[in-house]
Amino acid sequence: MRLTLNRRETELTPAPLERLSDTLRAQGLTGVRVSCSEGECGSCTVLIDGRPVTSCLMLAAQAEGTSVETIECDDPATAALQQAFIEEQGFQCGFCTAGFILTARAFLARTPDPSEDEVREALSGSICRCGAYPFITRAVLKAAASLRGAA
Amino acid sequence: MTISFDPTEHDHVGKPLPVRDAREKVSGRLRYANDLALAGMVHGALVRSPHAHAKVLRVDATEALALPGVVGVLTHEDTPRTVWDGCWFNYRGPALDGHARFAGDEVAAVAATTPEIARAAAALIRVEYEVLPAVLTAEAAGATGAEPVRDEGNLREPYVAEWGDLAAGEAEADHILHAVIDHPSQQMATIGRNACLADWEGDRVTVWTGSQTPSELKTGLAMALDIPQSKVRVQALPTGSSFGQWWSNNFMMITALLARKIGRPVKIELSNAECFATVKRRHKELSTGRIGVTEDGRITFLEIDHVMDNGGYGFKNDVGFFCVDNWGRAESGRCTVRAASTNLVTAGCMRGVGDVTLGNCVERLCDMAAERLGLDPVEFRLSHQLRTGEPLRHIMGHDVPEVAQARSDSKAFRAKVPADWPEPFVLSSGSTAEILREGAAAFGWDQRFVGWGKPNHCDGEIRRAVGVGTGIHCCGVELEGGTAATVRVNPDGSVKLHASVGRHGSGAETTQVQVAAEALGVTWDMIEMETGDTDSCPWSHGSIASNTMYRTGFATVSAAKDAKRQILEVAARNLFNCDPDDLDIRQNLVHRRTRPDNERYTIAEVLNAVRSDALGQFSTVIGRPTEAMPPSTTFARHFAAHFVEVEADVGTGEIRLLDYLACQDSGTVVNPHVLMNQVIGGAICGAGFALHEELHFHPETGAVMNDGFLDYKVLRSADFPARTQVIFGNSHDSVGPYGARGAGEAPIAAPVPAICQAVFNAIGCWVDLPMTPERVIAALDRLGHTPH
Predict the structure, then answer these.
(1) With an 8 Å Cβ cutoff, is B189 touching chain A?
(2) Which residues, 6+ apart, have CB-to-CB distance to A135 below 8 Å?
(3) What sign for the dihedral angle of Cα B213, B270, B198, B347?
(4) Which residue ranges does the record assign to the 2Fe-2S ferredoxin-type domain (chain A) (predicted)?
């Protein structure tokens, strides 16, 4: 199957019932973290045509013809979020971090100037068991401000 | 209170430096165990018992072995009968012994070329069982004629802490109040599933896995494999979230055994359901207590009977109950902990063990007493909680010679330790007092608390009220001893710290480097740390029991000072021609204390000068701890005081958190960013336990029924208040590095009583845990009227 993976035309040959998360990890994209495998935790979130999707619940074949982006994809919004997550320490163990950053990137693309409560709601599809939520929220607000400044 | 710590004096301590692996975490490049692969590796899957309790009569692997791609099978018949011990009795048992002690217990393992084939093969292994009667509760475990879960019997020796004259305390009390609290079992519910890889080279094995306790895992593997520790190398990796889940676990032993049997590297990756249902969990704990108070507000006695279940392989006879120390001004007391083995998944130390549960019971009793007397809960805590220098009630290790000696001859003890170290058997530094006062002022407690059982705001079915709770935990356990670290200074002046700590998000790989850099006088960029390789890191208990900053940090600082001493001796002899005591190092530069800007050499220049040194120095300096903590007599604790406002809907039973203030006394704050994260993370996990979290066990098989995030609910970002603040206390510990103590566990203990109290104030009654809408409605039904 053909798809655009991290902005490069790519050809992949997944097994018929392979999950997209497994296909991407097999490409060395370790930023696709698999934890719950039931779409509840959000660690494996990737962007499909700009929309956040839990890749553990999607068959790889369904991604044919789409644009798939992971945390490894060079992107100014991802970079701004990464920097803000570092500065605000929006993580502890780091396992869920890529999923939060990609979810936040898609959210900020739609809502460039969010309120604090909007950020908290928008990120509620992901679980940070370490409980870094307030710092994640701050990081997203900080990245939003810096992206608005850059725009 | 005197503040003897000035952060401006320091280059690293007290600074909010970014954690060392931040870039790897945000980029997805940090390597967890499930990211690793080895050349020639095969994949393992586990065969698990469907029965709560059964003997394995026969394992028939014929069909499995016939499946293309299957490499080999491991059963109890291939397994040494040696018992391996997990740290602090969190596990005791052989890796496989043909005796299934819970539904989900491992009975065999199979290796194949892909994980899918391995799982298919595991399903083809036929196991014949003799099903035994199952013991599913601690109460049943203690009944006459109960089926033994273990050869040692079901009941552990009761653990008792006692002080004062309980009978007199009871006689003197004007009011005696009772509480019974059934604490459900909390699941660590880790994000990030663990994997284990094992590879044998001859008779030596290397194991890669996520672990908070690399050295303890090496010890456990040597026991399970029945080989010397010198033949075991653990390469501990980041765990993902852990909270006590990933110390040393039986699936790691099985991975190493399977690899030895088939002669190839093996990887076993657990599924999320396996992580939830087969590894570890918090104990189910039933707390029954009584408190006696006089009309004028004295606590004359405190009595707790606490029953916990160990599951199949836990072997603890106590949970940490430092909460008894926290309320140690009670005039008399007795706390009894009784533990029983059951045919449920193994229970062990989850973050805040004991102080989350037993601590909640103590706080409840004290709240009930304060309510009866009409006293303010902040004031009641200030009156009755222990202060620095006051005697502790929960002294562990009475039978250890060092403890006995310090008790009988305190002068001999004082002669052995530095003059500024605390007296033995008293609270060494800090308390709840300062953080309660500062927290109450910052929260506006006096305005927002309007009386026991009274909301400060009513609107239709909405009731709002505030609550306060305190938490305490140890800073490592006094009897562990032995934690070491080494600091190696390379010929180019760069430094590597080797200290065995966990990388589960607590920031230890950062804060240890901060204190090492401070003690040695080097800059942030010149120092790296190895945390997980047991071939280079000396033995340590790892990151458990909030010991990392206090105990490992002590060893780290001591090793750094030893390295510094060696560098200064070389510099004094070869370059300065002076006494080493006249020299110092700051910012990588060796200089005279009196004239720091005059003559300066880099550490690399000093170590190069060693080449002409005839006195047997080496150009790699290895610093090791030269001082030891008194292992059994210095009692540091850390403290939390949390303030919360809740909103209860008496129509739906829903509880929402509106405002949260977490105050923490951990002594010197080495990295405020790291500590804030620990404090809030603890509060959120504790709030989850108060409001939602509970494992459900099948009534017949004892199997965990809610083995994933679909059915086991944890808090998400919108569930915790946007209004969240942290305040740090200012105490200073004379033993801990730069005045610091432990940090990670008191913050999960305080939220439970705080939220329970706030709900009581909102709706006028206590609610069973977890306080789900159903339980809130049930409590209101028992109350028999709509409050207020």
Answers:
(1) yes
(2) A88, A89, A90, A91, B676, B677, B680
(3) positive
(4) 1-74
Enumerate the β-bridge partners of residue B725: B661
Same structural domain for residues A146 and A80?
yes
CATH superfamily of the B41-132+188-277 domain: Aldehyde oxidase/xanthine dehydrogenase, a/b hammerhead (3.90.1170.50)
* Residue A94 lies in domain: 76-150
Query: Domains in chain A: how many in total?
Result: 2
Question: Full-prediction pTM beyond 0.90?
Answer: yes
Same domain for A80 and A64: no
User: B residues 8-47 near A, CB within 8 Å?
Assistant: 18-19, 21-32, 34-35
Bridge partner residues of B266 (DSSP): B42, B198
Q: Which residues of chain B have pLDDT under 50?
A: 1-5
The ipTM (two decimal places) reads: 0.98
Nearest to A30 among B29, B684, B685 (CB): B29
Indicate left, alpha or beta for B655 from its phi (over 0: left) and psi (-120 to 50: alpha): beta
* Domains of chain B, residue spans: 7-29+478-623, 41-132+188-277, 137-180+292-375
Q: With an 8 Å Cβ cutoff, are A131 and B681 in contact?
A: yes
SS (H, E, C) chain A: CEEEECCEEEECCCCCCCEHHHHHHHCCCCCCCCCCCCCCCCCCEEEECCEEEEHHHCEHHHHCCCEEECCCCCCHHHHHHHHHHHHHCCCCCCCCHHHHHHHHHHHHHHCCCCCHHHHHHHCCCCCCCCCCHHHHHHHHHHHHHHHHHHC
pLDDT in tens, A116-149: 999 999 999 999 999 999 999 999 999 999 999 9
A67-104 pLDDT, tens digit each: 999 999 999 999 999 999 999 999 999 999 999 999 99
The verdict on A115 and A141 lying in the same domain is yes
Whether A88 and A39 share a structural domain: no
Question: Are residues A81 and A115 part of one domain?
Answer: yes
The answer regarding whether domain B7-29+478-623 maps to CATH 3.40.50.720 reads no
CATH of B137-180+292-375, one of 3.20.20.70, 3.30.300.20, 3.40.50.1000, 3.30.365.10: 3.30.365.10
Of the residues A35, A69, A103, which one is the last residue of a structural domain?
A69
Helix (H) or strand (E) holding B85: strand B84-85
Q: Measured between CB atoms, does B271 come within 8 Å of chain A? A: yes
CA–CA dist B249, B581 (Å, integer): 48
Fill in the amino acid letter for B350. M
Note whether A135 contacts B680, CB cutoff 8 Å: yes
List Cα–Cα distances, B40 to A65, B109, B198, B522, B609, in angstroms. Answer: 35, 19, 12, 43, 47
Buried/exposed B702-719: b ≥16 CB within 10 Å, e otherwise: bbbebbbbeebbbbbbbb
pLDDT attached to residue B305: 97
One-letter amino acid of A73: C
Q: Supply the pLDDT for residue B236.
A: 98
d(CA B213, CA B539): 10
- For residue B610, the distance in angstroms to the closest alpha carbon of chain A comes to 41
Residue B155: strand pairing partners: B340
What sign results for the dihedral spanned by CA atoms B517, B520, B525, B528? negative
A142 and A98 both lie in a single domain: yes
- Listed in order, strand segments (DSSP E) in B103-184 are 106-112, 126-131, 159-163, 175-183
Length of chain B: 788
Does A10 touch chain B if contact means CB atoms closer than 8 Å?
A: no
Is B642 within 8 Å of B721 (Cβ atoms)? no
Q: At what angle do helices B377-384 and B433-443 cross, to 10 degrees?
A: 170
